[in-house]
Amino acid sequence: MITVLAVHFAVALVAPFLFRRVGRNAFYALAAVPAGSFLWLILQHDAVYAAPDAPALLVPWIPDLGLELAFRMDALAWVMSLLILGVGALVLVYCARYFKNKDSNLGGFGAQLLAFAGAMFGLVTADDLLLMFIFWELTTVLSYLLIGYARTRLAARRSALQALIVTTAGGLAMLVGLIMLGSFAGTYRISALLQQAPELVTGPAAPVVATAVVLVLVGAITKSALVPFHFWLPGAMAAPTPVSAYLHAAAMVKAGIYLVARLAPGFAGTDTWLPVVLGLGLATMLVGGYRALRQTDIKLILAYGTVSQLGFLSMVVGLGQPDAALAGIALLLAHGLFKATLFLVVGIIDHQAGTRDIRKLSGVFQSSRALGVVAVIGAASMAGVPPLAGFVAKESVFEAFVHHAGTGPWGVVVLAGVVVGSILTFAYSARFLWGAFAVKDGVPVTRFKAIKPAFLAAPAVLAFLTVAYGLWPAPVDGWIQPYAALFAGEDAADAGHLALWHGITPALGLTAVTFALGLAMYYGRGAVARAQELVPGWINGDRAYQQTIGALDDAAVWVTGRTQRGSLYFYLAVILSVAFLLPLTAILLAGKPLPADLYVIDPGSPLQLVAGAGIVVGALAAVRANKRFLAVLMVSVTGYGIALMFALQGAPDLALTQMLVETIILVAFVLAMRSLPAELRDRTGGRYRVVRIIIGAGFGLTMIFVAIYALGARVATPVSLDFPRLAYDGGGGLNVVNVTLVDIRAWDTFGEISVLALAATGVASLIFVRGRGDRIRSSGSVDEGTVGRLAAPAHSRDGAALALSRRFAASTKDAWLVAGRTLAPERRSIIFEVVTRLVFHSMIVFSIYLLLAGHNLPGGGFAGGLMAGLALTMRYLAGGRFELREAAPLSAGALLGIGLATAAVSGVAPLLLGGEVFQSAIVQLWLPVFGDIKFVTSTIFDIGVYIVVVGLALDVLRSLGAEIDEHFEEQSDAAAGTTPGGNA
Amino acid sequence: MSVNLTLLTVMGVLYACGIYLLLERSLTRVLLGLMLLANATNLLILTTGGYAGLAPLFAKDTDPGAYSDPLPQALILTSIVISFAVTAFMLGIIYRTWVLARQDEIQDDAEDLRVAETPSFDAEDDAVIPEETSEFPLPAVEPDAGGTILAGARQMPAGEAAAEERPGSRTTAPNQEGGSE
């Protein structure tokens, strides 16, 4: 069984290539797959029917979820497969003459059709509820693609989507039902489930089981287009006719019927089953038949006819009696045969005549008698005329319903309904034949091209089978009997037999009534049509669907419009309000007392109060500031205050790092914001301001309480009590914080420096946009005093000051800084240059000291890197961008890369030496000058950190400093209209 | 576990000010708000260390409880440097916004506002489908019926529209999904 499935899907995969090579004849190759499988199936007959247990196949799939590929080929599956594979092969053969050779979409279409056949086969042979559901949804998706084949046409797109939405909605309900069933029964195996069914239906969980079964039926109802979801099937007639023949007559819509048939032996006894199946089935049968009589498109006549027959089928199959089961499957087979025949006939008419409109068709029978004969056989079988398959099946169905009528008044109603439905069926069958083939008064004879035999072959074979089945129903009877025997009960032997002649029975009488009234309706078709026109438009399922979808769209737009306002302020306000109101409510509702150990003044460092006051003042001033740099400065005040707080708390590393960072940030701010106006926009006032104050204050207050309760709830001993010992013994360092960073929690740090590299790259790409700014030239090629020239009118105070400063600073010697001479004289400060010259190298040495000593004393890679960054900042501020280039000849990108690589290597290297990632080793050695040295390998990691931080600082300077300088100069040059001298 | 109210109060004020600035329209103020929030969070982490203590530099005779807790410190150190990187990145954004749009303010998203006004009529869903009775229309299908019809979102001559509706047609309206491959 798996092989059959696998071949279907595998050939579907290569189908597009096949079509590219041989064109539409590739359909013959595809048809060979279901045809071969069909032969295999015939050979399986004895295995299926001889053994007491049907052949099954079990392949574990996802054992953790209890999913398995469970297949089982019992009588029902076998009969269904016969229909699916047989009709599938014939339809594929038919396609080879139906489509144009040059259609480039054929490859995908053929693949989908073949895959669909495979999915249907999987669906009927699956013995696992979830596996069956997967195939079920596969057919839904493939049917979407197949209906939407003519994707340039609105009708095809829309009806494809409609079919998808309706059947998927039902599929969802079904999935819920299947899971309920599976979990209550404790098994998803269908065969096991059906064995348990009697206990489930009568057991304590009976209401749950009944609900689950109804949900599953919803899936079947949508798939098989029963009222009230019948509208998608006529809509799906936008599909190419072979698709309609296969999906909407023989295969997919039968999936729902199959599901009903599969579950009926076990669950037909639940309270809700019969009302749903019989009620909806009957309604569908009548609505479909009634509407089929109103159609003028022969394909739509068939479509509504199919709707009607599906209702009919679900009633019979769902009745839950052995005779009905036999009759139902017999009818299912007969319907598959004649409806596929008729659809294929419609396709041929459309193909040869260019229309399917019965008001335009005339005299087709004269043009092609062979086609006419095939169609007459199909339609007569549909109407139930002997000696065809339809008659045999319908005879048994009538028997079953006559039998059922004995159960009560509802049985009689159902029987009457079925007879009325059959009369309608007879009438629209006749109308179909008349509409498609008859010579009509006043309509010119349709031009009809001759039909090639290969085109007619598929419907002819199906028509032949219809006749054969009618004349010799015994084999079919034998195929279905084992299924009918599943319906337990004292009258199990009552299934009866399919036969052409049962003798004079009530059923035969009903057939006679059907024919008589059906013929009457046909001959009185004018009166029928007039009567139908008098009836006002009934509730239209299609329109209801449109309105539902429309309302859904409107609701979506409404919700989106209310929530997605495009205002960051709005979003943040909502998020932050929730963020503080939720915990606040929880705290208030919990009503726990405050923890006992609260203190305001830390006995160890009372000065915290002072530092705290400073921070509070800074923060409030930052909020009130109206000047950009004032606000920045005030935020810096809080930053420095926090550095002080760190120091008071006993965290020298933090204090050091925070000081350095605050300083660099301050410089970065000044560099980045020099082009922005000094004034900040007026703070948003009014109502919004009050809201902001409330949210801010509420958030702050909530955080305080959350922190108090969270800290108060802490009971365990801090894990960090072990850190000092770990740091010394394992990490070989005295500075616990630094060892934590580079050893105990080295993974964290590695992640962090990766983020640093990313952020640095982000800054560079925001400013440079293209490239990474590694192209800056060396100072040697830059003319003296050309960088950053100010422009001022010659005869003004500014102009005079400029001239004066230029005279003072005219020095060609690189006295203090390498590239100081490149700077415009008015930009230079001799004092700053001197100080830089004096301090720079000391700072670099100090940064390296911080790096190396950090293992034992405050410092480390972060602090060291920041210190080096500050030194570079100083060089840049004193000597301009060419000075920066001289000070750091390596590009920032290279530094980031080297740093990350160093850190990574230090992490991986121990692995190669047999240790663990980021394991450190302590090396004791003696060097001539330094004496005894204790070197810990994690220092190498710290060096990586150092380099990354320097790279980050350099990137900030390059981007926010040097590159923005250049933007400025380009702008002022453009404004002055001159070519820059040394800057070209 | 002991709780330092001074630190928490300062933290609360920083959070309040940070949130207040975050809700402003000026990008610069938003960035400053973020920095205040980062500082507040650092203080929160610091508070988890409990009482102030000795700097965590190992000495053999010191009781581990006497140190200021080293674990929060390591976390804060990471956080400080990351905040620096984020601040630099935000500065880059502010500068670029200024260069591109000459403004330092967060604008409402026009696209979102447009979505809110989407009309309920959608051609793909709601247009009337012409009755089709054949997949193989003969070439005589009224090419010169004249007049224009509304096809999708545009007016087009009826003949052209009919040509598009034919199976295998390759002509589709520009910039419309679903049409061509």
Residue share in helices of chain A? over 70%
Overall average pLDDT of chain A: 88
H-E string of chain B: EHHHHHEEH
Strand content of chain B: 5-15%
Which whole number gives the mean pLDDT of chain B?
A: 77
Major sheet of chain A: 2 strands, antiparallel
- Give a quick account of the main beta sheet of chain B: strands, pairing sense, barrel closure: 2 strands, antiparallel
Weakly predicted, low-confidence segments of chain A = 979-984
Radius of gyration of chain B: 33 Å
The total of helices of chain B stands at 6
Please report the distance between the alpha carbons of the first and last residues of chain A.
77 Å
Which sequence of strands runs across the widest sheet of chain A? 1-2
Helix/strand/pairing class of chain B, anyone? Answer: mainly alpha
Count of helices of chain A? 37
Give descriptors for this structure:
heterodimer; A: 984 residues; mainly alpha; two-stranded antiparallel ribbon; two-stranded antiparallel sheet; 37 helices; 3% strand; B: 181 residues; 6 helices; elongated
